[in-house]
Write the structure tokens for this entry.
Amino acid sequence: MDSAIVVPTNACARPKAGPGIIDMHNLAITRTLAYIAGQLGQREWCEGDSITLADLALVSALVYLDLRQAERDWRGAHPELAHFSTA
């Protein structure tokens, strides 16, 4: 999810990297979200029966995407992650 830092956060931001690099990082974010959604499925927690550091890390990354890349609409593409982040 560190690729989210490279992608400009608004129309006024000037990308520090070329368009090919931005596209590569956008693809990395998209693929990571799909992978995490597939791994999480309908489980309540990332690992085991209670909250762990993995859950906190995932929620932190998802909140960051909401804050900095709201136009990404990851919630629409991955409703299981949206449910996870609000549970």
